[in-house]
Structures are given as structure tokens and as C-alpha cells.
Amino acid sequence: MYPMSTPFAVRKIGHAVIFVSDLERSKRFYTDVLGFKVSDIYDGTKMPGGMVFLRCNADHHGIALVGSMATEAPNLELNHIAFEVSTLDEVLRARDHLRRHGVKIDFEGRRRAGCQLAVEFRDPDNHRLEIYWGIDQIGSDGQVRPPAEWKGARSLADALADPVRGQDTTLQDPSLFKD
Questions:
Q1: How far apart (Å, rounded) are the C-alpha atoms in residues 72 and 112?
Q2: What is the pTM of this model?
């Protein structure tokens, strides 16, 4: 049985470390396509297969890649890793950028619980990734949006056209609105 409260409070997910089959290829994907910056690199003497630490903010790393995976990820243990962006415009820019780089999009639109607008895709080793904006925030009262207010959408155009209560889907750059 777990206690009702803990003597500490986790404040955020700190980082994810994933195995990759080709460390250099994955480093290029995460830096050139997703815009992460390299903080540090371990060669094979410090970590079998080598390791690359990548950041997207002031934290030393949000993602670390370990280059010792023998085959493509079967996605049995990890469903996906999600990256938050600051604006809805950035989600659309990310989708367009991924398409230009030949990245297959698995999903774009709005998920139900959480109501975030997102684009979901795969990295070179088949790890599922998400770029999102606008996830519901839960206040100190602990109240969440009731399921009757969830509005799943299978495209960003549908999500923009039918926003959920309290979510402003006005684009700063309306020219981004294209399917």
C-alpha cells in the first residue's frame, strides 16, 4: 500500500534515455530535424555503443541516445515521448517541417483526454514521438475537464475549426492553416 502523500513532489519529467541502432543517424535526426542541441557525447569507452546527451532548454539533457540497440524499436515498453511547444503555430510549423524532411506523420489533430493539439511521428528507430501544444492544466482543486467535453479531431484543421472550451485556436500566422 502506498502512503496518501509522499515526503517529496516530482515537478516534471526530467529526461528520457532511449536505445538507437545508429547513433550518428539518430543524433542528426534529433538535431537537424527536431532542433535539439548536443550537450555532451560519450564514446564507446564510457558507454557501450556510445551516448549522446541532447537538450531543448536549459536542462543539460531532455533526451539521451544510447547507440547499442541491435534492431528497430518494437515499442513494447515505451508508447511515446512527447515534446511541448509554446504556441499552436509551432505545432503546424513542426508538421510542415517534418513533412519536408520526409518524416511519416502517424497522427495530427486533438487527442481526447488532455485535449492537446498534436502531431505524432516516428524517429529513425521507430520510437513514437509527439509534438504538442495546449494540454489541459489542472489547478489546485484537482478538477479535470469532463469526458463529455473532450473533442478528438483526426486533423489539425478539424481541431482548429472546433476548439474545446477555454482553448484559443487562433493562429498568430493564419497562412499556416493548410492541410
A1: 29
A2: 0.86
Distance CA 161, CA 107 (A): 17
Alpha-carbon distance 111 to 118, whole Å? 8
Q: Which helix (H) or strand (E) holds 98?
A: helix 88-100
Per-residue pLDDT of the chain (179 residues; tens, 9 = 90+): 555 666 556 677 888 999 999 999 999 999 999 999 999 999 988 888 999 999 999 889 999 999 987 777 776 678 899 999 999 999 999 999 999 999 999 999 998 999 999 999 999 999 999 999 999 998 888 889 999 999 999 999 999 999 999 999 999 999 998 65
* 81 contact partners, CB below 8 Å, separation of at least 6: 16, 18, 63, 127, 128, 129, 130
Give the max Cα distance, the chain: 54
Cα 94 to Cα 78, 84, 136, distances in angstroms? 22, 11, 20
* CA-based nearest residue to 22, from 98, 125, 149, 116: 125
